[in-house]
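Example 3.
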Amino acid sequence: MNITINNQGFNILQLVNDLKPVKPLNAKPTLLVLLAIAAFALIAISFVRAPRVDLLAGQPTAMFLMRAGMLALLGTATAFSVLSMTQPSVGKHSNSWQIALAFAAIFPVGGMIAVMTGDNTLSVASTASVYRCLSYGSITALATLIPMIYALRRGAPTNPNLAGWLTGLAAGGMGGFTYSFYCPFDSLAYTGVWFTLVVGMASIAGRLFVPRLIRW
Amino acid sequence: MKASEDSLRSLMIRSQSGDKQAYTVLLNEAGNWLRRFFSYKIPADAIDDLVQDTLISVHRKLASYDSTRAFLPWLAAIARYRWVDRLRQTYKHEAKALDFDIAQESHEELVGARISIGRLLNQLPAGQADVIRIVKIEGHSVSEACAMTGQTESLVKVNIHRGLKKLSALIESE
């Protein structure tokens, strides 16, 4: 049997001797960790902020349902795509993030239209509420980045730049989702600007920092 | 005799469970397959190193193979990543080298720059592709490139720098 790979003395027996049984990667544990982080963030924020009045009354507004649903969809669908990138193969990569992102784009587009047509929520919203939206959303996003980066490092992502974008996008979606339970504003302008900023900042951070952490 | 997809997949599954005999056969067959794979893409003198790098990556990323999927596309994805990573490192190194001396190149860098570059250059603006081809591939100096293209010396340098940066991005996104 031919066991020498090249004329520089590389010998596959070195790799064979180092072989240990491995368990194929599984996305489910990471998805569960992400859900646990989102749940923990929801509870943690409740210690410093009261949930929305409509939620306490058991009558969530249509805007809340749409916003939270869209951000949850964006976060989970994109996280699923990220985790599928840990296992390179043909025909496996999930493009669910593209559909989720296309649906979520309704908020920034609708927000811009709302601002241009006279929605004055942005001027009514206090700096403190904007700061809370950005900080709570970003902190939760940061927490969800960690398990995704860990999963990518264990796997073999073949497009680190795209993986970076998507990791940030998923984290931003989850961060925005958790804060949406506490954000008192229902206007399209507020959601379109500030929630988009949370998702956008997380995506850019993901693109800037994740690729260098996951190269192999 | 070439191993079939089914037999390679079966060997991989056994390797994941720690079967060293299956792993030995798998790595040998994978090595043969990789040599054929790279022979269409890179110069012959660079194949052995890339095959070796890819087999080490296969070893390190054994857990990333999904046993419900075909083996060869997985191996091809690993091989392609290693190839692209090598190109990326070459271009990164070259872009940095431009800051010091744009006309001095080592043989190794030039070989790296030649790898599969033709198709990628077609995706760059003509001004950038021309100077990269003249200076980086054909080995002319910057001043010669100025005379051949009518660009100023600083524009040639800027175009090379931007072109190499774009090439890196193109390689990564493919």
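Residues 86 and 155 of chain A are 4 Å apart (CA to CA). The two ends of chain A are 30 Å apart (CA to CA).
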